[in-house]
Design brief:
The chain is built from five helices and no strands. By secondary structure, the protein is mostly helical. The protein is rod-shaped, with a radius of gyration of 46 Å.
């Protein structure tokens, strides 16, 4: 009988690199080419290629879904932290007034002494006041630089994640439906000739690439969303730790300047200062002697 491809020109069908017409009927009785190799098929990309594409996209989707889940769980973690932070700040805020009262009481104690002890107490009072100012700055920073921004961002972060998920699911579903539709179209296009099949395969390939590009872009977008959230959290803590560092530096410098001085002063509890000892030994009036008493008696007898 007449071969099925009779009457078609060689340019009507796509060819491979060797110039063989894709899908051409073999001339042998067993349906093979004269060289014994089976002819290529006018079909969509081989099943293994499509399977590899689906597997790759499936892996990307799995990572994306895992990241989404982590971000949703993170919302709960941040809420728990915020609750604990607010409770901790409430306790810290109460110490601002008590700390100020403590320094005022210390100042009264220091004002009742003079001399070297008075000077030591005065230096201690000024040092404690300076440290207390830094400590209160830490407390304010804990609220203003950490708690307040977190409270403002936590609901927005949750909304961003939900909005992303909604947009991603809608677009992914649409692209998947379009790919499935084009796969079916490419199967039927083989019956319409080589040129129709080639066009269908190119269209399908472009749509698959569009799907892969979209998934990759959204993966990057989601990872940046996660990264920005935690980097912002680090920045907020950085402000607090900066004040902690200033507090520690202030206390360290004060002790480096006065620590040995206070220690020596405390160790002198059983010794009076030289000025005080001289003041006690100094005579307060005219010295009374035996001659003086005899003169007084003589004057009295006359």
């Amino acid at each position: 009988g007449r071969p099925a491809d009779a009457g078609r020109g060689p340019t009507d069908r796509p060819t491979d690199r060797a110039g063989q017409v894709l899908g051409a009927r073999a001339t042998s009785a067993r349906g093979r080419r004269p060289d014994g190799t089976p002819p290529p098929r006018d079909r969509p990309p081989p099943a293994r290629t499509r399977a590899h594409t689906r597997a790759t996209m499936s892996d990307e989707n799995a990572v994306l879904i895992k990241t989404l889940t982590e971000l949703r769980l993170a919302n709960g973690d941040f809420k728990d932290f915020l609750k604990c932070a607010e409770s901790h700040y409430k306790n810290l805020a109460n110490t601002i007034n008590t700390g100020t009262a403590l320094i005022d009481a210390l100042a009264k104690v220091c004002s009742k002494n003079t001399g070297d002890v008075g000077e030591g107490l005065q230096a201690l009072c000024e040092s404690m006041r300076s440290v207390e100012i830094k400590r209160q700055a830490v407390i304010r920073s804990f609220n203003e630089d950490l708690i307040v921004p977190m409270r403002a961002h936590i609901d927005n972060d949750r909304s961003d994640v939900e909005q992303f998920d909604k947009e991603f699911q809608t677009t992914t579903k649409k692209l998947k439906q379009e790919v499935t539709k084009l796969e079916k179209a490419s199967k039927s296009a083989g019956k319409k000739g080589g040129q129709a099949l080639k066009q269908a395969l190119e269209t399908l390939d472009n749509k698959v690439k569009e799907q892969e590009t979209y998934t990759g872009d959204q993966m990057k977008r989601l990872l940046l969303l996660k990264r920005r959230r935690y980097c912002r959290y680090i920045q907020e803590w950085h402000y607090v730790m900066k004040h902690y560092n200033e507090l520690g530096t202030e206390a360290t410098n004060i002790y480096a300047t006065n620590g040995q001085y206070w220690q020596q002063l405390a160790a002198s509890a059983t010794q009076l200062p030289e000025e005080t000892g001289q003041f006690i030994k100094r005579p307060k009036g005219k010295e009374r002697t035996l001659l003086t008493l005899e003169e007084a008696n003589a004057r009295g007898s006359t």
